[in-house]
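Section 3.1: Structural characterization of target chains.
Under the original work plan, the team committed to producing a structural model for every single-chain target entering the pipeline before any wet-lab resources were allocated. The record below documents one such target. The sequence was received from the expression subgroup and is listed exactly as submitted; it comprises 191 residues.
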Amino acid sequence: MRVLGVDPGLTRCGIAVVDGGTGRKVSCVAVDTVRTPVDADLAERLLKVSDAVEGWLDLHKPDVVAVERVFSQYNVQTAMGTAQAGGVVAVAAARRGLKVEFHTPSEVKAAVTGSGRADKAQVTAMVMRLLKLQEKPGTADAADALALAICHIWRAPMRTRLAEAEQRAAELAKVHKARLAEARKAKGVTR
């Protein structure tokens, strides 16, 4: 499985591609940080993020895109910009028919470090260790993008199995409900 991981942001947007092998084996294909000027117009900044993501999607051909979910931050303006950048990424993936999965920061931290409260340095250190990188990724945002991709690779099989189990349970419940209705009808019970 090849995953494009994106840590969305307007000033710095981490972007990475990770391949997942059998078991928990992962390898880094590419990693970078897309930067936009703080004083540029919002639309121009979003376009730059979009262009970069589109280029990576075309070049690396991922199977799925993993994006950090924005759910709360202290600075509302920062949260809005992050959410807008994440939306641009989702649209670019959707145009190509790619599935987009969102992961919370604590979910990503727990997946790569074992603790949902790990700090940026711990995440970076574990990403380097897991991917056998000799150098730190250029920015914490780039390390976070790698962590997002790793998280998705490791959690996707479990999510798939859970979804399949939920679907089977819903089908069984439907069959059971139909049998109960038939039994009630046969006994002349209405309800």
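The first strand starts at residue 2 and ends at 7.
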